[in-house]
C-alpha cells in the first residue's frame, strides 16, 4: 500500500535524525555548509566594550576641549578625568571612561591654540557594551545551517571552532544496461540523464558526493556488489531504476540480500510513486541508507525532492524542509487518492503556473520550473487557490 506523501517525508526525516552521526568540533574555516550541533552562545558581550561609530573626538564636559591623547582601534583608552578635555578617536576604537559625548571630525574645528570646538549630535555616537547581545545569550539554535553570516557572527563572539554535524557522504549507482554515458541516444539505447543530474542535486542539498558508478550490470550479483561497495564509502547511496518488480529489476532482492529494512516502500505520489528508502545496519554500528529512485528522470527528481532531501536534512541535524505556498495562476488537476506534484514556474508575485513537457520520462519541463505545486489527495487546484509548494534546490543566482 503506497504511503501518504507527507507521512513519507516525515518518516525518512525522523530516520535520518535518529542515525545522524555525532558532532565534531572543527575550525571556523571548515564549518561552512555544515549544521550547528550546539546553540551559538555569546562568549562575551557584543560589543565587548563601548565602541566609537565615528572618527572624531571623545569629549568630557563643556567645550572647547583640550586634546590629551589619541585612541585608535585595537588600543585601550585611558579614562578622561578632567572636564574640558578630549581625545582624538577613530571608528572602532574603545570609548574612554568619563567621556560624555563624541564629536564628528567633520563637525569640529581646531583653533590656533589647539582647542577643539564642535557640537555633539543628540544621542551617543558609539555602540554600547552588550548592545547587540549579552554574554551567554543564545544567538542561533542547534540545527542552524552554517553560512558565511554565521561564520562571521561566530568569529565576532570569539569562537575559533564550532561544534557541527559532519557532512553527509552520498554515492550514486546507475542501473540499466540500456544506458549510454556519452553521445546521442539510438539503437534501442538511451542516454543516462541521471548520472549528471543526481550528484549535482545532492550537492545543492549539502551532501558530499563521492562514488558515481554506472551503468551497473543488470544482474542480482552486480547489484549486491555495487550496493555493498557504495555503503562502505557513503552514508546514503542513491540508486536509479529497478524500484518495481520487472524482469531485470533487482533492487528489492539486492536489498534483502544485504539485510536492508524499508523505511518507506512506494509513496502515494504522482509521478514517481515506486520510490523507496531503506536503512542498512553497518558493521561499525552506524546506520546507512539506500534511496531507490525510479528510472524515469522526472520521477527520480520527485523522489529526490520527496525522500532524499528530508533524509539528508535529518542526517545533517536540520529540520524537515518546510513547504512554502503559492497562488495558482492556472488550473492543475488532482490525481485521485495520490498527491500530485506538478512542475510549476513562479513569478515575482508568488504566482505559480504549470509548465509544459512534464511526462515522467521528460526533463524539458524541469528545466523551466522552480519547483512543484503540491495538489493534495482528493483535491484539484484552481486559479486563485493557495497550495503548498516544494521548491527545487537551487544555488544563489539560479532560477
TrEMBL record:
Gene3D superfamilies: MoaB/Mog-like domain, MoeA, C-terminal, domain IV, Molybdopterin biosynthesis moea protein, domain 2, Molybdopterin biosynthesis moea protein, domain 3. Residues 171-314 form the MoaB/Mog domain. One of its GO terms (cellular component) is cytosol. Its EC number is 2.10.1.1. Keywords: Magnesium, Metal-binding, Molybdenum, Molybdenum cofactor biosynthesis, Transferase. Pathway: Cofactor biosynthesis; molybdopterin biosynthesis. Signal peptide: none annotated. It is an enzyme of class 2 (transferase). It catalyses: adenylyl-molybdopterin + molybdate = Mo-molybdopterin + AMP + H(+). GO terms for molecular function: metal ion binding; molybdopterin molybdotransferase activity. The keyword Metal-binding applies. Its cofactor is Mg(2+). PANTHER family: GEPHYRIN, MOLYBDOPTERIN BIOSYNTHESIS PROTEIN. Catalyzes the insertion of molybdate into adenylated molybdopterin with the concomitant release of AMP. Belongs to the MoeA family. This is Molybdopterin molybdenumtransferase. The lineage of its organism: Bacteria, Bacillati, Actinomycetota, Actinomycetes, Micromonosporales.
Amino acid at each position: 500500500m503506497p504511503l501518504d506523501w507527507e507521512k513519507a517525508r516525515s518518516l525518512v526525516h525522523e530516520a535520518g535524525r535518529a542515525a545522524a552521526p555525532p558532532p565534531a568540533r572543527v575550525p571556523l574555516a571548515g564549518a561552512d555548509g555544515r549544521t550547528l550541533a550546539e546553540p551559538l552562545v555569546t562568549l562575551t558581550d557584543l560589543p565587548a566594550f563601548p565602541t566609537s561609530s565615528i572618527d572624531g573626538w571623545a569629549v568630557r564636559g563643556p567645550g572647547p576641549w583640550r586634546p590629551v591623547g589619541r585612541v585608535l582601534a585595537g588600543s585601550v583608552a585611558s579614562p578622561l578625568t578632567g572636564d574640558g578635555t578630549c581625545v582624538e578617536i577613530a571608528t572602532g576604537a574603545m570609548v574612554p571612561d568619563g567621556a560624555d559625548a563624541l564629536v564628528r571630525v567633520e563637525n569640529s574645528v581646531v583653533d590656533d591654540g589647539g582647542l577643539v570646538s564642535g557640537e555633539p549630535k543628540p544621542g551617543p555616537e558609539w555602540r554600547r557594551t552588550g548592545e547587540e547581545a549579552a554574554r551567554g545569550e543564545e544567538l542561533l539554535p542547534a540545527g542552524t545551517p552554517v553560512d558565511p553570516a554565521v561564520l562571521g557572527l561566530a568569529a565576532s563572539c570569539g569562537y575559533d571552532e564550532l561544534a557541527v554535524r559532519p557532512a553527509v557522504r552520498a554515492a550514486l549507482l546507475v542501473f540499466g544496461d540500456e544506458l549510454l554515458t556519452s553521445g546521442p541516444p539510438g539503437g534501442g539505447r538511451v542516454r543516462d540523464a541521471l548520472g549528471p543530474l543526481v550528484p549535482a542535486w545532492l550537492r545543492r542539498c549539502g551532501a558530499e558526493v563521492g562514488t558515481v558508478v554506472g551503468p551497473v550490470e543488470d544482474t542480482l550479483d552486480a547489484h549486491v556488489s555495487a550496493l555493498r561497495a557504495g555503503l562502505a564509502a557513503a552514508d546514503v547511496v542513491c540508486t536509479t531504476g529497478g524500484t518495481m518488480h520487472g524482469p531485470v529489476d533487482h533492487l528489492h532482492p539486492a536489498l534483502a540480500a544485504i539485510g536492508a529494512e524499508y523505511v518507506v516502500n512506494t509513496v502515494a505520489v504522482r509521478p514517481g510513486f515506486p520510490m523507496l528508502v531503506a536503512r542498512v545496519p553497518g558493521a561499525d554500528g552506524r546506520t546507512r541508507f539506500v534511496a531507490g529512485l525510479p528510472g524515469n528522470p522526472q520521477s527520480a527528481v520527485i523522489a529526490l525532492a520527496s525522500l532524499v532531501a528530508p533524509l539528508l536534512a535529518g542526517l545533517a541535524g536540520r529540520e524537515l524542509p518546510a513547504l512554502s505556498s503559492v497562488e495558482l495562476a492556472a488550473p492543475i488537476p488532482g490525481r485521485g487518492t495520490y498527491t500530485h506534484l506538478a512542475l510549476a514556474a513562479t513569478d515575482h508575485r508568488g504566482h505559480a503556473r504549470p509548465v509544459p513537457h512534464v511526462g515522467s520520462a521528460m526533463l524539458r519541463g524541469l528545466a523551466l520550473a522552480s519547483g512543484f505545486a503540491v495538489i493534495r489527495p482528493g483535491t484539484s487546484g484552481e486559479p486563485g487557490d493557495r497550495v503548498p509548494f516544494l521548491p527545487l534546490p537551487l544555488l544563489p543566482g539560479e532560477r
